[in-house]
Amino acid sequence: MPRRRSDVADAAMRERCLSVVLGRMTMKALTAGNDEDASSLLSRWSYLRDENESFDPHARSIIYGSTTKRELVSRLVEYCAENATVADVAQLDLLAVRAAGNATWQAYELADEVAIEGALPSDQQLRKRLQRALAPLVEHDVYVETRAGATWMWLWMHGGGGGRVFRASDVVYAACVPHTAHVFTTRTSPMRRRALTHALAVTFGCCEVREMPLRGRCLRSLARLALQRNALPGLSHQLHNELDLPAAPPRGRAKRAAPPRLDGRAVREDEGERAAKRQRVDAAYGTKPQPTLEQVQYRLKTRFRGLQAAEMDSGQLFRCRVTFTGSSVLDGFRNLVSAGMATWPLPPHVSNLHRMARNLIVLEDRRDAHTSG
Amino acid sequence: MAEILKYLAKLPTPLTAVTLIVGDEGAGTLELANLLLQQITDYHLRVHTATRLPLPEDGAASRPNFDFVIFLLDITRMESFKQTEEALQYVDVAYFHGRSCLIVNGAKKPDRWANDYSIVEELANAYNLQIICCQLEDEEDGAVVRRRLTAPAI
């Protein structure tokens, strides 16, 4: 029976979807481990598993029989594209995004403190709500799954007109954590962002979804920072490990060898002072690793306070931007204090950073109580 | 009044050389101490480290007499220079007659120097200190520094 044009177009679209998604994964991610190893992405893709949860032998032979990534991708696309649905491709894409851990997530707050109470609606219900909310705004495909303590959404918002041409930039990923009023999404175009925030507001029944000045690559850390915003100093340490989200995969710097230790035969004359400093730092930051923030920026809009020789009008504003970047800026601040390179006590806008739920801080002078003139 | 580090405030231990390394955190104190302790010597070598002078009062009773003081300065950090400058004021003049030296770490990265080398030279000349420039992370440099410091005559 000849295939209908729409079937052919659909098959071509699925092939392209799969090709783009597989093409973005590294060869290591595609082939790592064997089919029993959890690190192997393809082995966790349910499309390649049968009812008994065992890995498809033909897929296994493709993976181990291919020598280059191009060959592997083209053989897999040929094998899977005929029957794999958009939902299957979306599931694989989400697996890849979670494993790669290099997406930048933006935090949003559901206004009016609407919490995502108790159990979220089922994945199916959530998907239907999102589809209803997006329907008037943009053509879309939506996939929702619950994994690792969070609900993940894959939203492909494609342009109208004939044909659905898949582009990776048309996909937005979102995640929400139960019992919190925060949602995290990847970056997208302003038009898609407006549609997405409207859809999320309608889906979760709140009047507004507000963008927070908080973004980063480690979703677990962002969720923790958002949750402990304005927490009491002691309580913020208790929230560690409350959220069971996948940890960010170790970045290159985290794999560095442990720092050298002092030979046991040497004697530290200032051991007492070091112990006291360690206690102060632990009291302020806790003993566990800090949430991961890759960038923190301070924008100063203050009067210049510096050397007397500087030729600046004391009333003139000194605009300055200071950016700290690294694998974990909060851990870096703590290490600066431990290493004695930052004087204690730190200013509040540095020591309270883990409770501010932002990585852009604007510092301004206090307005005088009595203005002249 | 802060205690000055006095030479021969206590009796020295026979066949033992007690060295004090004064350098702030991150200057390379740990690396230098480990290097010195790797050297095989005919005498017993003990190494003490401190981040600043004067030394804390607790532990003064059990503290030995220091035979040699090494001031470790990281030329890529201004704080390290200031801390060394301050520490030099709490050392007895007897140490400046061949019983101390100044090690400048970070010497192989002039693009990262926080200070002009002439300022470091001025400081060393003011206290009659011999300067040893090195990059302690470099294995070769570390071996050279270790041999120079533990040789019978410096």
UniProtKB/TrEMBL annotation, chain A:
Entry-linked Pfam families: CENP-N
InterPro entries, per database record: CENP-NAC/CAD_complex, Chl4/mis15/CENP-N
Record's subcellular location: Chromosome, Centromere; Nucleus
Stretch list, region Disordered: 244-281
Compositional bias (Basic and acidic residues): 262-281
Entry coiled-coil feature ranges: none
Transmembrane segments: none
Keywords: Centromere, Chromosome, Nucleus
Chief localization: nucleus
Family the UniProt entry places it in: Belongs to the CENP-N/CHL4 family.
PANTHER family recorded: CENTROMERE PROTEIN N
Listed name of the protein: Centromere protein N-like
Species whose genome carries this gene: Priapulus caudatus (Priapulid worm)
Lineage: Eukaryota, Metazoa, Ecdysozoa, Scalidophora, Priapulida
Gene: LOC106814690
From TrEMBL, chain B:
Name of this protein: Centromere protein M
Organism encoding this protein: Priapulus caudatus
Entries under Pfam families matching the protein: CENP-M
Entry keywords, A to Z: Centromere, Chromosome, Nucleus
UniProt KW Nucleus keyword: yes
UniProt keyword annotation of Cell division present: no
Localisation per UniProt entry: Chromosome, Centromere; Nucleus
